[in-house]
């Protein structure tokens, strides 16, 4: 599986040239089996993350309407121990939020040591919807790429492992999903005329996302482009990227837990002797 992860600034990305569907040779049943194995490893890694309290994990999910942000959260969070997981959704800013800088509401929801936070939309809306719908002057939102890089670098310096996912769906698949919402009574509550309106700005969003990918991909906070037309493949790419990012920390976390265990045993021994 070739997962496209961008970890340096300046790469010119053409989203139209990147597939939204799984590679031909990918077998759905095999993918589901792999996902279950990854899920177990993820649970185990999260346990170490929680106990060691050396790092935190921030997962940023971005994508067009219907790209599957909610579905991805349901799936990935399903593998995790709810203790230590938080999900934050960022909608239209409230009046109070608008009266602060754009990162104010975001910073309040970043994970503390040991925790894993999932962002359903994020500070990236401030260079996406704000740009496309002209909610702020260009001179203002353009400065934000630098602010975002600095902010994420600061979080990384504090031990936050940052993974950003762009859920990449095709125009056709989005149309199908929007129409399905009208057909299926259980999905109709999600209908929103604004989603059809946004489709009229498809190319503007493409351009805005391409610039996000080019300007805010860094070693410490890379973007992964997830082909998201098939839900099972989308889940597999996210889970695999996450496990591969956490795995290198396993040894360090385990060692910290061993150290803590040894110290606690010695304290107990000393207490028993002193009785
Ligand atoms: P979703 O479409 O993510 O499933 P939703 O339709 O239930 O969510 P909300 O979560 O209430 O709606 O809000 C999402 C909307 O908020 C999106 O249209 C998004 O563009 C908008 N939004 C998010 N951040 C900002 C921002 N900083 N400025 C303006 N609009 C924003």
UniProtKB/TrEMBL annotation:
InterPro entries associated with the record: P-loop_NTPase, Polyphosphate_phosphotransfera, PPK2-rel_1, PPK2-related
Gene3D superfamilies registered for this protein in UniProt: P-loop containing nucleotide triphosphate hydrolases
Keywords: Kinase, Transferase
One Pfam family of this chain: PPK2
SUPFAM superfamilies to which the protein is assigned, alphabetical: P-loop containing nucleoside triphosphate hydrolases (SSF52540)
Molecular function in Gene Ontology: kinase activity
Domain Polyphosphate kinase-2-related: 26-251
Keyword Kinase set for record: yes
NCBIfam families in UniProt: PPK2_rel_1
Similarity comment: family membership: Belongs to the polyphosphate kinase 2 (PPK2) family. Class I subfamily.
Full protein name: Polyphosphate kinase 2 family protein
Organism: Archangium minus
